[in-house]
Amino acid sequence: MKNALKLLRRLVVGMFLVCLLLPVLDLIILFSFTVKYAGNGSPYTMAEEVASGLSETESGYALSPQLQESLAEAGAWAMLIQSGTGQVVWHTEDLPAEIPLSYSASDIASLTRGYVQDYPTFPASRGGDVVVAGYPKESFWKHMYPSWDRGLIEILPPLAAVIILADIGVVILIYLVTDMKLLKSVGPIVDGIEKLSKGRTAYIRKKGLLSEIAQSVNKTSEILQARNRELRKKETARANWIAGVSHDIRTPLSMVMGYAAQLADSPHLSGEERKKAQVICSQSQRMKNLINDLNLASKLEYNMQPVDRESVSLVSLMRRTVVDFLNMDAEGKYPMEWLTGKDVPACFVYADAALLSRAAGNLIQNSMNHNPEGCTIYVTVEQQETTCSVTIEDDGAGVTEEKLEELDNAPHYMMCDENVTGQRHGLGLLIVRQIAQVHGGRMDVGHSEKGGFAVRVELPLAAERG
Fold first, then answer.
1. DSSP codes joined into one string, 291-323
2. H or E segment at 427?
3. CATH value of 230-300 in 1.10.287, 1.25.40, 1.20.120, 1.10.3470
4. What global pTM score does this model have?
5. For residue 395, what pLDDT band results from cuts at 50, 70 and 90?
6. Cβ burial 299-316 (10 Å sphere, 16+ → b, else e)
7. What is the DSSP string of 105-142?
8. CA-to-CA distance for 406 and 396, rounded, in angstroms?
9. Pick from 323, 442, 443, 456: which is nearest to 391 by CA?
10. Phi/psi of residue 375, nearest 5 degrees
11. What burial class does residue 390 get, using C-beta atoms within 10 Å of its C-beta: 0-12 exposed, 13-18 middle, 19+ buried?
12. How many CB atoms lie within 10 A of CB 68?
């Protein structure tokens, strides 16, 4: 609705601009036409020029060639009426035949105001005589009786102003009424489109000026909802399939691991055979871990994993995780350094302790998996103003910029590329990112200052979650 009101404001502003600019444009056009016609010269001026340019000679009267040319260009003619007799004592050669050559006083009074035989005439005084300039029929319109009531003249300016303002008010009223009707049609459509953008159902009553658009929005909403239902069905089916496959694989995999462990410890087998059995055990354990990761990733994605939140100290949790991995590192290939400052507080977050332990374990195990020759792992816990962060990095092989970009834009865990032969930062990091997001946090990957790979997980402090 806010967008619709914004549209209405723009329309109103546009309407006021039109009301302001249109009169200005009208004045410009009127002025241009006035200048154009004013350039042709006033007929009264022409009559006065003829009166002043007409000279008396021994043979009669003569008009200068320049004035004769000006009259010809205007298509006009001229004549001189003698005072007293009313006779035409001079005229141009193109005087129309129907023009009288004798005039009474009333005729002269009439032609000064109007016409002679429908020719518009314009008088000028020459001594006591009258010079008349005549123009082609329908070239000028003359008001024969120019008399007005003085009261009307006095009231005309304010009356005209009132009428103009009333007209503007009517135009504005019509414009606003039209816009309000348009707004009543546009508003629900805008709200419906906003609902569609948020994945909600939209229904608009099909009436008004935009009923066809409303029908299209309703149809689009139905199509999107149908697709969402189908997508949810597919996602549920996929999650159930992953859970079912994971469950079905566990039993035979446990049997394989059990028998392989017995063979690895059997004194009846040679050393080479026991070594192969040990490889089966380790790879089976790896397969079991991958199945567990896949199942957890699926549950986190579809919100099927229970999240038991409580107040958890990240410092204590990370310290226990580091100790557990140090105890499992019998060969000492992966020493760990605790870089958390002594002045760092407990960093309490409102989270699922088991999931956070899983995330921390995945990050440490990721460094081990990608550095089989060994590396030093560094763990740092820091508290910011509203968040707490855990950084796990190593001084191992690290990653390239291209690999970092791949990790930042990691595809869905069900998707795979062609490079499946080597070690990959894959499902483990995806689970860490999902766990961080479930708790309202984020995960960032990058290069470590120690020369290897670094992962930083940031979570909101418990106090910030209220």
1. HHHHHHHHHHHTT-S----EEEEHHHHHHHHHH
2. helix 427-438
3. 1.10.287
4. 0.49
5. very high
6. bbbeeebeeeeeebbbbe
7. HHHHHHHHHSEETTEEEEEEEETTEEEEEE--TTS---
8. 19
9. 456
10. -165, 165
11. buried
12. 17
DSSP states of 389-401 as a string? EEEEEESSS---H
> Tokens 């008399």, residue?
147
**Assigned token pair, 459:** 């979570």
Say what the pLDDT of residue 423 is. Answer: 42
Query: Residue 350 and residue 462: Cα distance in Å, rounded?
Result: 5
**Whole-number Cα distances in Å, 385 to 130, 347, 436, 460:** 103, 11, 18, 9
Joined tokens for residue 449: 């200052």
H/E element, 402 = helix 401-408
Helix axes 150-197, 211-265, angle to 10 degrees: 20
DSSP letters of 54-74? Answer: EEEETTEEEE-HHHHHHHHHH
- Residue 381's alpha-carbon distances to 29, 314, 343, 385, 458, in angstroms, are 77, 7, 11, 14, 10
The H or E element containing residue 350 is: strand 348-351
pLDDT tens per residue across span 110-125: 888 889 999 999 999 9
What is the distance between the alpha carbons of residues 202 and 217, in angstroms, rounded to a whole number? 7
| Residue 87 to residue 408: CA distance in whole angstroms | 109
Spatial separation of the C-alpha atoms in residues 269 and 199, rounded to whole Å: 63
CATH superfamily of 307-415+424-465: Histidine kinase-like ATPase, C-terminal domain (3.30.565.10)
Phi, psi (degrees; rounded to nearest 5) at 289? -65, -40
**What is residue 288's three-state secondary structure?**
helix
Helix (H) or strand (E) segment spanning residue 213: helix 211-265
Q: Domain ranges for the chain, please list them.
A: 2-38+148-191, 43-134, 230-300, 307-415+424-465
| Alpha carbon 135 to chain centroid, angstroms | 64
Rounded Cα distance between 458 and 440, Å, is 9
Pairing of strands 88-91, 310-313: unpaired
**Pair 442, 436: CB distance under 8 Å:** yes
Confidence of residue 339 (pLDDT cuts 50, 70, 90): very high
